[in-house]
Amino acid sequence: MGSKQSSAAQLAAAVTEVLGVAQLPVRLRLWDGSEAGPPGAPVIRVRSPRAVRRLMWAPGELGLGRAYVAGELDLEDDVFATLAALTSSGRVGSAEPTTPLGVRARLRLAATAARLGALGPDPAPPPEEVRLRRFGRRHSRARDAAAISHHYDVGNDFYALVLGASLVYSCAVWDSPATGLDAAQEAKLDLVCRKLDLRPGARLLDVGCGWGSLAMHAADRYGAQVVGITLSREQAGLARRRVAEAGLADRVQIRVQDYRTVDDGPFDAVASIGMAEHVGRANVPRYATRLHDLLRPGGRLLHHAIAWNAGAFQADPDTFIARFVFPDGELLGLADIVGALEATGLEALDVEALRLHYALTLRAWVDRLEKNWDAAVAANGLGRARVWRLYMAGSALAFETGRMGVNQVLLQRPGGDPPPLRLRDWR
Question: Which residues fall in a coiled-coil region (predicted)?
């Protein structure tokens, strides 16, 4: 008679079926000390049967993510190596819906849970998870404000630890991996200002202004008059303090305002950086028209947004990113956003792909988070720190593998002075 399988071996067999792979890509170490999986593979410590119960109720990345955020799973090795192994299955780390787990696999998982003493009702989600149904109609102003608050109003001290002195929460521009995060972010801010051809006295609208870094750079270095808008009250409060401390209050105004309600155009330039991901596919034509209408004839728009490169994108409310990080976030392909902007009459002058720059940026943010881990946990709790670690590392891998990209598109409203014959003098 063969010996009874260890708890780890039983769970490994079930997880292999959940992931849809021939061999488990990680090694499991369970609460009873048993282990299973390839020697030398990244180790996931399963601290509690409750983690198995979460996986039974939500097979795939959502169940695994909930267990990690709740502290029922730990990653014992490098987070990038562990996630790279898991995402090779296709059931983890995708922003799209995956094929539902079959009945046979679900029954096997339930049987394994029963043998491991993990059967029971669906555990309550960690408090860091957001339930979208609480917010009302998708992409209404109220729901957008709630979704933005969920992500950005988690404590300015926490973001400062992750982002560094620049307080810029979008892709930096790197000369090389050795550039350093702060210098790369300053280079990005300056590149935006040069692309927009900002001059003293020019009116700039910064849509989704964050903590005011671009607004301050444009006002201080280029003499622009800037209006920055955000839906995050915590961002706006800190941005106003930074503006005042820099002596720029006469040139920078920070508002808590939806882009749909801005009515004091026209502006000489508009920057939308890392904001379009929150707009929603159905609202993109209206969004593009609004940006067009806020520009004066001849004015420029710098549109900086993440793009989904891995085929057709369908938003899924049950991914880890949707539940914990970016409620209602939707990614478009580059052609979709350029087409929508051009449909308003804007002329595309230049497109610059920055995919690998975002991978470097995200790795720098994860490095800062891990080096400041105790302070980050003290600032905003262990669960939130775990969410940010998981999402930023997973996003870095998505940029490195080409599933996601990020692009700066420069456009101009017809009328006014024509663009120069050669535009790349900002390099």
Answer: none
